Every structure is written in structure tokens, then in C-alpha cells.
Amino acid sequence: MPKPDQGEEWIELYNSGIETVELTDWKLVHVSQGRRFVYVIPLKTTIEGKGHQIFYANLTKIMLSDEGGEVQLLYPDPADVIADMHVYGTPEFEQTSARSYDGGDPWTTACEPTPNAGNCIAPFTHVGVFGIGLGLMIAAISAFIIGLAMPTALLLGGIVGIVAGLIAMTFRLGNNNLLIIGIAANLLAALFVFLGKRK
Questions:
Q1: Are 196 and 140 in contact (CB under 8 A)?
Q2: How many folded domains does the chain comprise?
Q3: N or C, which terminus of the chain has less Cβ within 10 Å?
């Protein structure tokens, strides 16, 4: 998080394995505009399996550049071998650069910050609006455009809405996108109802 609206900048690590990982003497490195800042992770620092670890700027003294830069994680050996790295561009306020899901690719700036939690997890309100919107849209199309009986149309819409919500949560679709799609689907449902009643 290079440019928070408030609070400190931070770097987050994630352990994709199931065993606790010892991070003693691993290094966090930030490179930007020809400057290199190094933080050596202290003794007895660990990350539990499937867990997260946040390193705040007041601890690391690493100030992420507003002009973009590169963040590296180095193995604990003198050769400074890179275990992982990411190059980020010029950030906006409160914009993170994160993997689209924990431990996987691609990287994205579309997700809201989730320190010490899974990446790109949409709030339940967003998932709800998304699922309900798609469900109502399918029900409206089925009943008023295609001509299905209302109970059947509502059942079909309900199934679609539930499945869509589960897919959104499972694949962690971008949270803001879910809200926009959900609102649009609700508006389309209202339009189909209006058009269907005018027939």
C-alpha cells in the first residue's frame, strides 16, 4: 500500500503453504529511482500456513515511492536471491497493488485494501446486490419477455442469483465491479418488467 489516505504504508506477505514459515533474516527491498532500501526481517518472525504478515513503514523504514518502484522479497542468504518481486506503477490514493487472489496471478490494482485478509474479497453487500440483481433480471426476462409462469421464473432467477453469488465469492471477482454489475442488473430487471407489462 504505497499511498494510503491515512495511516502508514505497508507491505504484506502471504504464505501459500500449509506449514508455518520462519522469516528470520529474509529481506524486504524497495527499489525506486536509483535508490535501494533494505529491511532485514527480525528473529522469530513467522507466517502461519495460509496466513498473512503485514510490515508497516514505521517498522521497516521503507517508504514506498509515489512514482512507482519495485518491491522484492529476498531469501536469507548472502547472495540476495529474489524469492518474489513486484513492480508497481504510479499509485492513486488508497490503491493497493495485489495478487488477484492469494498466492496467484495476475496482479491487480482493482481491489480494495484488505490488510491481513484475503485479496480481492468482495463485501457481502456487494455480492448480495450482484446475486439479487442477476436473479431478478433472469426472472424478469423469463416471465415478461419469454413468458414463463411467474413461480418458475422466480425459481430460475433465484438459482441463477445464488450460483452467481457463489461464483463471485469463490473466484473473488473485483468488488467494485460486482456492485456496478448488480446495480445495472437490477435496473435492467426493472426495464424488462416495464416492457413486459406494456406488451
A1: yes
A2: 2
A3: C
